[in-house]
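ok trying again, last paste got cut off:
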Amino acid sequence: MKLKSFKELLKHSVNLIKETEGRYIDPFKIYSVQEQLSTAFSQEAIGKSVNAVPIKKLTWGKGDTKVMIWSQMHGNESTTTRALVNLIFLIDRHPSAFAKLYENLQLIIIPIVNPDGALKFQRNNANNVDLNRDAISLGQPESRLLMNTYQAHQPDMCLNLHDQRSIFGVNGNPAGLSFLAPSFNKEQSLNQNRRQSMSVIAEVAEHLNHYGLKGHIGRYDETFNEHCFGDFFQQQGTPTILVEAGQLLLDYERNRSVYHCMLSYYLLLRAIVDRKFSDEKVKLYYQLPVNQKLYYDLMIKNVKVNDGHFHLYYTYDVEVHNDKLCYRPRISHVSQRLNPAHRVIDAGFNYLEGSYGEPLHYLNKNEYLSDIKINSVNYSLF
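nice, full thing came through this time. structure:
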């Protein structure tokens, strides 16, 4: 299928499945809707989480090249899962459009590795362990299931899907999507497998530049950590690609990111089939700008504090209440220096005012503020 044709299919498929609408998703609802898939997707419960929630695997395709894909090993990183589930249903409803992938690939998919974390929208699992630091010790049931799946299938390529925080930017722009060909040693050396990962990423990034992401594609930190699954699998000789869904401006539900992730997954799979690996592609990979932690969710600039003027920078802490996400603005930085932010409010060299109109002379780092006034005008901080 030509990329233009896929893009037409994609137009109406970002929330193809209503269970993926919104950034908070319930694993049980995802498992339930997956029962509607045709027999082209085989489904298997491969084990359970710490809290005995099933973890499911899907397989599709009859090709010789095995691609293992997993998402949401961090429970609060749901964007890639939403994109993955919607792409699965898009493939299932339009099988002829994906015939080339079906004939050439076998996909092994774990949509939600950490269902306990997903239910609470927290990074770690129910034992408060970061599963992506458990590749060596394998102390958690979810980690062991992921490793067992890898060993059972011996994939030719791995796709490790994550979300990145809204603080990341590239060249002064928000990082909408970032990639990494993980290192296999501390020296960050190159071998054939890592070059393959880099070539595929470069091929995909080249296309994404023409679909609304030019200037918003980053390269993730490639510091080696053998406790991370991507680095460990790369070390074992399997080309691995990390995908990090980012945020563009005020899209906190990350619907635009879902769209770009679905597009990138298709491009990744197509590039794996086409096997366009080259040294030129490796050079293009290294030209991708490295992610930097430079963005804030909100800046209130030109705020009067005592006898000076400062800029207040907020980050949003995310919590779950009644299956909905709540964003709590927290002061994370106070400075006279301007930094990038997704939203900007200009205080016009005035005090911020409290609930009763009193000037706020002291503003403490890590203080939560949901609403403020400036010159008696109310502002909601989210």
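cool. The chain has two domains: 3-293, 296-380. The domain at 296-380 is CATH 2.30.40.10 (Urease, subunit C; domain 1).
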